[in-house]
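To the structural biology subgroup,

Please find below the input and predicted structure for TOR signaling pathway regulator, which we are adding to the shared reference set this quarter. The sequence is reproduced verbatim from the submission form. If anyone notices a discrepancy with their own records, reply to this email rather than editing the shared folder directly, so we keep one authoritative version.
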Amino acid sequence: MDQPQSLRTLFASAKTEKESLESRTDSNSDSYRSDVDATIAKFKECQRLVQFLSLFSQNESLEEVATGDIPYLTVDYLLADLLQRSHNPDREASLRSALGQYEQYLSRLDTYDSLSNSDKKLYERYSENPSSFSLAPVNDAATRRDVKVARFREEKELKQKLEYLSQNQNRLQSDDEDVRKLYIAEINLYTHQAFQSLDLITQELSMLTAIRHAPQPSDKDQAGDARVRGSTGESGYSERLDAPLSQLLKNGKFGPLLSKEGKPLQPFTLLDRRSQLQQGVFRPGHNLPTMTIDEYLEEERKRGGIIEGGGQSDVKPEIDEDDMEKADEETMKARAWDEFKEANPRGSGNTLNRG
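Predicted structure (tokenized):
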């Protein structure tokens, strides 16, 4: 049956555009998305014309289909492949549309008894439970790898056969039987790829469904997440287990560590180096303020507990003139020291070098 030039031309144009899209690298650009939508529209128009012309019937076999009509069996597959690759904001809707086109493609081939034995078994598996279809067990990595390698080899062989027939297409034009072999080889390749696409779409839809039905976090949970991310609000909450040392020593959560006399006001851990402090943060029960020796000495220096220059301080504390008891005590100490020096001249206790 001769086809109207419009269908033949439209189908050839749509296939050429699809091949061009597959070789482009600007898949995220607006122009690419626009071209994909235009090509999808062409394939949908091809579908409409195929149905309008009643090219295929459930009451006939593939041998009864005219050679020139066989390529139109792939319209559904080509449209499904484009829908799967499209950038529709509603990803789930695009995947379900693609799924419907793949199903229509395989159903028609099954009607014409054009599926190989292995593909027929896969189609039966898919028909029994579409939502859980998989080429291999999802939780068995080794089996999935073996299946993937085997199908890759099969696809390579199908492509080589199709390429060979395509390269000899000029010679085949005069042989109707060889032309049919070329078209059927293309269908076999597309069928092989269709089952791989069904596997991928089923997995992606399963993930999208799980995300959609996941419980939404409450306001309380969101507040907790903000704290976990380390955000601080009026409460001064931080994800750090210990507040900064400056905060601890001023008006922080724990208050000052040492009194003016140098007595600890609360327990703390003294480490020999900062690396130990960092490593110890994640130990269970680590909740005491920590400081390195350097930080401890610095705080002692600020408090006045460390005398610079070595030895005892040369600066004597001033005595309150009104404190008579303190003045008498200092006078008695001075007299006792003078009497000791008179009774024990310098060197009097050294008898090692005397003759």
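Summary notes: The radius of gyration is 44 Å. The first helix runs from residue 5 to 22.

Regards,
Lab coordination
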